[in-house]
Write a structure and sequence with these properties.
Layout (H helix, E strand, L loop, with lengths): L1 E4 L11 H9 L2 E4 L2 H11 L5 E4 L6 H12 L4 E3 L13 H9 L4 E4 L4 H9 L6 E6 L6 H9 L4 E6 L4 H11 L7 E6 L7 E6 L3 H5 L8 E5 L3
Parallel strand pairs: 1-4, 1-5, 2-3, 2-4, 6-7
Antiparallel strand pairs: 7-10, 8-9, 8-10
């Protein structure tokens, strides 16, 4: 069986009982960064497990090796560095391959940063658009312009290094809609969590007060 296990995005207390049981019983854990997952297991007080790294450059041969082990009856867990696997990480490749091979796959749900951001935004989320990380170069402007006429709430991630640039571009693209709401979330569930609600017209003033550390999640209200 392949278990898709969600892990805390910050606060260790957010891990579920079921997630802990699944991690404890599995034969191996497939993860983005073995150091990050190894630290999580240490904090949970678990003995060392076999950790298999999987990233965007992981070879098909390595994936096939995991599939072979699953077909032989091993129980493997897929985790990301934080939150729900398969969202803005390469884990989907293993899940897709396992699905094609008829391997049993189970979800062990839990934390997700963009869902947490949506839940505290106060914006309508009966429908929303998740954009992951915005393109860094090609197609970036086009993606930002698509938000202009979007009738649904939009949510995306941004790194601290590109945060200011993104907010400036967003305020330019949506400059004709100064009263449009947006919420900036930083370090959700962590000690220095910050959630700032503002408008396109006032966002540049708010940005000056926000620390440029940690991961950001930005929620833009519908047009």
């Amino acid at each position: 069986m392949l278990s898709i296990v969600s892990t805390p995005i910050g606060n260790l207390g957010d891990i579920t009982v079921r997630a802990k049981e699944t991690l404890a019983k599995c034969n191996a854990i497939v993860c983005e960064d073995t150091r990050v997952t190894g630290k999580l297991l240490s904090l949970l007080g678990y003995p060392k497990k076999e950790l298999i790294s999987m990233h965007s450059r992981t070879s098909k041969r390595k994936v096939e090796g995991m599939i072979k082990r699953l077909k032989l009856g091993e129980n493997m867990v897929l985790v990301s560095d934080a939150g729900t696997p398969g969202i803005s990480d390469p884990g989907y490749a293993l899940v897709s391959r396992a699905r094609k091979e008829g391997i049993t796959i189970e979800a062990v749900p839990g934390p997700s940063a963009f869902l947490a951001a949506l839940s505290v935004s106060g914006l309508p989320i009966n429908q929303f658009v998740y954009m992951g990380f915005l393109p860094t170069k090609k197609g970036r402007r086009k993606v930002l312009e698509s938000i202009c006429e979007e009738k649904r709430t939009v949510v995306f991630y941004e790194s601290p290094h590109r945060f200011i640039k993104t907010i400036k571009e967003l305020s330019e693209v949506l400059g004709s809609q100064p009263s449009r709401f947006l919420v900036i979330c930083r370090e959700l569930t962590k000690m220095h969590e910050e959630v700032v609600g503002t408008t396109i017209g006032g966002v540049m003033v708010e940005v000056e007060r926000i620390k440029l550390k940690g991961e950001f999640c930005i929620v833009v209200g519908p047009n």
